[in-house]
């Protein structure tokens, strides 16, 4: 089952002489059960493609079709809301969607990631690795059919990075969800089955796999 499809989707920022083409016209599909590593250097267009697939941005030309609801998104940088406690951050997507049992489901998501004891702490009171795992819990709390993670380990040490990837893979397996992880880390990419490569805004779907 196709969960998301780009058909000639491209994204340009700015206009005229100052225009920057972040993503060239792109055709790709994300299917249920996919485990995709989106690899390439910083500035190659990985984040732009992830944002289009997630519906966080719209293509300048072309179309993006989505048949995945809900979608879970994990960002690279700090994304927790500072005034809210850990559990309040995790339950926020449920509250915004008007879903029931938000607090209980948020606590259960934290429990699965072994973060239950941090529930009442503020983001400033936890480590960077813990904050990223809380962000993962928030992305997974609604049981998404597609999980998109944009450089989720880019600011983490090796141990924390491995733990985040473990959690993402386990959550995708548990929910039967597709998982797309953008990364420039070959160790992270080696954990996923399929490689998409970005270079100068162009996507290549057939590239050599990273050695396992």
Describe the structure.
- This is ABC transporter ATP-binding protein.
- One of its GO terms (molecular function) is ATP binding.
- It comes from Solirubrobacter ginsenosidimutans.
- 31% of the residues lie in helices and 28% in strands.
- The protein has 212 residues and is α/β, with parallel strands linked by helices.
- It has a domain at 2-79 and 143-204: P-loop containing nucleotide triphosphate hydrolases (Rossmann fold), CATH 3.40.50.
- Helix 2 packs across helix 3 (102-112).
- The longest helix is centred in the C-terminal third of the chain and has 18 residues, at 158-175.
- The mean pLDDT is 91.
Describe the structure in brief.
It is built from six helices and nine strands, in the order βββαββαααβαβαββ. With 212 residues, the chain is of the alpha/beta class.
Spatial strand sequence of the major β-sheet:
5-6-7-3-8-9
| Number of DSSP-assigned strands | 9
Span between termini: 28 Å
* Element order: H for helix, E for strand: EEEHEEHHHEHEHEE
| Shape, per Cα inertia axes | globular
Detail the poorly predicted runs.
none
Overall pLDDT confidence: 91
- Strand content range: 25-35%
Q: How many H/I helical runs?
A: 6
InterPro entries: AAA+_ATPase, ABC_transporter-like_ATP-bd, ABC_transporter-like_CS, ABC_transpr_LolD-like, P-loop_NTPase
Keywords: ATP-binding, Nucleotide-binding
Organism: Solirubrobacter ginsenosidimutans
GO molecular function, one term: ATP hydrolysis activity
Task: Detail the topology: elements first, then pairings.
Elements: E1 2-13, E2 20-31, E3 35-39, H1 46-54, E4 61-66, E5 71-74, H2 86-96, H3 102-112, H4 128-140, E6 146-150, H5 158-175, E7 178-183, H6 186-189, E8 194-199, E9 202-204
Helix pairs in contact: 2-3, 2-4, 3-4, 4-5
């Amino acid at each position: 089952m196709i969960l998301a499809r780009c058909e000639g989707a491209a994204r340009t920022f700015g206009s005229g002489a100052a225009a920057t083409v972040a993503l060239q016209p792109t055709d790709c599909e994300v299917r249920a059960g996919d485990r995709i590593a989106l690899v390439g250097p910083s500035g190659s267009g990985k984040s732009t493609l992830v944002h289009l697939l997630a519906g966080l941005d719209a293509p300048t030309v072309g179309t993006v079709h989505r048949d995945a609801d809900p979608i879970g998104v994990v960002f690279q940088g700090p994304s927790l809301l500072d005034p809210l406690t850990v559990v309040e951050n995790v339950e926020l997507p449920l509250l915004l969607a008007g879903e029931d049992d938000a607090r209980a489901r948020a606590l259960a998501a934290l429990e699965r990631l072994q973060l239950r004891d941090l529930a009442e702490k503020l983001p400033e009171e936890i480590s960077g690795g813990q904050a990223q795992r809380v962000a993962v819990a928030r992305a997974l709390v609604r049981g998404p059919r597609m999980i998109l993670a944009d450089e989720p380990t880019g600011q983490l040490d090796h141990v924390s990075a491995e733990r985040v990837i473990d959690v993402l893979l386990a959550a995708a397996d548990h929910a039967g969800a597709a998982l797309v992880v953008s990364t420039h880390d070959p160790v992270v990419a080696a954990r996923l089955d399929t490689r998409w490569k970005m270079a100068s805004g162009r996507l290549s779907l057939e590239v050599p796999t990273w050695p396992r």
